[in-house]
Design a protein that fits this description.
alpha/beta; Glutaredoxin
């Protein structure tokens, strides 16, 4: 989870989606040590808007393989992470680059808006 590079198939070397769950003990390493931009999804299983956003987050991980790492944090299981991030509502999506927070959105976003938001930051992180 705390690996630094890209996740690739050992046979064909194709970039694979990097979607991991993190909690209190491994959140910092999962985000801080990543060379890729990291999209953190703070969610809870009982949260309807979180379930609405989840397919888009998973699609972004798949379609941006090799360019984006997605870290999912269950707010109920990692309240310390939620507190440190200043989460006041879920879903909260936080973009990190170089271990630093770059931007965030709170609440369910339409798939197209969320995709544009992520892509804008992926473009900025390459410049």
């Amino acid at each position: 989870m705390a690996a630094r590079g890209r996740v690739r198939c050992p046979a064909c070397h194709t970039d694979l989606p990097w979607l991991v769950d993190a909690g209190e003990g491994d959140f910092d390493a999962a985000v801080r040590d990543s060379r890729l931009p990291v999209l953190v999804d703070v969610w809870a299983p009982w949260c309807g808007p979180c379930r609405t956003v989840s397919p888009t987050v998973e699609r972004l991980a798949a379609e941006r393989a090799g360019r984006l790492k997605v870290v999912r944090v269950n707010a109920d299981e990692a309240p310390g992470v939620s507190s440190r991030l200043g989460v006041r509502g879920i879903p909260t999506l936080v973009l990190f680059a170089g271990g630093e927070e770059r931007d965030r959105v709170v609440g369910a976003q339409p798939p197209e808006a969320l995709t544009r938001w992520v892509d804008r930051h992926l473009t900025e992180s390459r410049t």
